[in-house]
Write a structure and sequence with these properties.
mainly alpha; 2 domains; two-stranded antiparallel ribbon; 6 helices; 2 strands; about 40% helix
Length: about 120
C-alpha cells in the first residue's frame, strides 16, 4: 500500500518521536479538560497532563476497559458535542453490545477510511 502521508511516514525517528509526543500530550490535555470520565480516572491514579513529560511517561496513564464503554454509555466518554458525533455499534464479542462513536470529522477522515479498507488510496 502506498504511504498516505509520505512526509510523516518516512520522517527520521527522532522527529517522529517528537511529533508523537506533541500529539499525545495534546490529546491527554484535551481528554483531561473535556471529559469528566478521563479527568476522574487520571485523578484516581494521581496523574495530570503535566506529569507526561516524555513518551515513556505514557505508561503512567490508567488503562481503559471494555466495561468502561458500557458503564458510561451513552455519552460519558465523548469529548465532543452531541451534534458532532456519529455512533457506531460494535458486535465483536458476545453479550451486550458496546457502542462507540467518533466526531463527524474523524469518521470522514481519509486515513481512517483507508485503514479500514474503504478507499483505494
Amino acid at each position: 500500500m502506498a504511504p498516505w502521508n509520505r512526509q510523516i511516514e518516512v520522517m527520521p525517528t527522532d522527529e517522529l518521536r517528537q511529533l508523537q509526543y506533541r500529539l499525545a500530550k495534546s490529546l491527554i490535555r484535551r481528554l483531561y479538560e473535556t471529559s469528566e470520565f478521563y479527568r476522574r480516572r487520571m485523578k484516581e491514579h494521581d496523574v495530570r497532563p503535566d506529569d507526561i513529560g516524555s513518551l515513556a511517561d505514557i505508561g503512567k496513564l490508567p488503562f481503559m476497559y471494555k466495561g468502561d464503554l458500557r458503564d458510561n454509555y451513552p455519552d460519558g466518554l465523548f469529548c465532543a458535542q452531541k451534534d458532532e458525533l456519529v455512533r457506531r455499534p460494535s458486535s465483536a464479542t458476545p453479550g451486550r453490545t458496546s457502542r462507540t462513536g467518533a466526531s463527524r470529522w474523524r469518521a470522514r477522515s481519509p486515513p481512517a477510511a483507508s485503514g479500514a479498507g474503504t478507499c483505494s488510496r
